[in-house]
Amino acid sequence: MVEEGLGDALGQSDADVRFEWGPTGAAHGTPSAGCLVVVDVLSFTTSVTVCVSRGMTVIPHRWGDPDVARFAAEHDAQLAVRRREVSAERPWSLSPAVLSTAPITPRLVMPSPNGSTVAAAAADTGTTVVAACLRNARSVAEWLLAHKYAISARPALVVAAGERWPDGSLRPALEDALGAGAVLHHLQESGCTLSVEAAGVAALFGGTPEVTAAVQSCGSARQLVKAGYPADVEVAAQLDTDRSVPVLTNGAFAAL
Q1: Quick one: which of 2, 219, 225, 235 has the fewest CB in 10 Å?
Q2: CB under 8 Å to 218, separation ≥6 — which residues?
Q3: Range of the domain at 127
């Protein structure tokens, strides 16, 4: 609990590269950031990266909206459904493995309770929003540097989306910490100034000898495997295999 009036102390404003957790952390840090990097390894940002690499655009949307089908229709887009609801008529879901082979559609609305919710909330702030995961971490870091982010005039905020406990509270997730840490590690190696929070997450990534194995063994991965989706874990755990950098443009993630 933070006393009223002391919130600015949490802003990491002394650093060009910052780190936060979840929707609340993103909302707190976005106003002063030039770029928001969203990380949701299992599975939103991995799925976005897979889609964008295949030439699709992805519209993020908040989770649990009963009018999401109408929203998709109004935006001339298909709708990604829950994994267990995939059918011949609705072949798109939050599964990166399914999206790797699903029919290509120009526009896809993709709700999720974590990464998509963070991205959708940031869409109207004027902040540049990028989707990162383990698959494209190095490419995202290189894109940030090439576009003059992660400097004092245009700081970068990396947000690990995390997961949810049954009561709805944030569950910090190892896979998202490692995905965020991968981006932060590359920025640190390039000479960027990281907040102590960001540096700590970069050190977590750098000090994990088998990142892919760690992701495959974490709680979120075990949950997906138990539910029957081991291929999603395999796709998401791959490190630096994708050059795509999804950037939120006019409300949709596309490769820029």
Answers
A1: 2
A2: 173, 174, 175
A3: 15-53+113-244
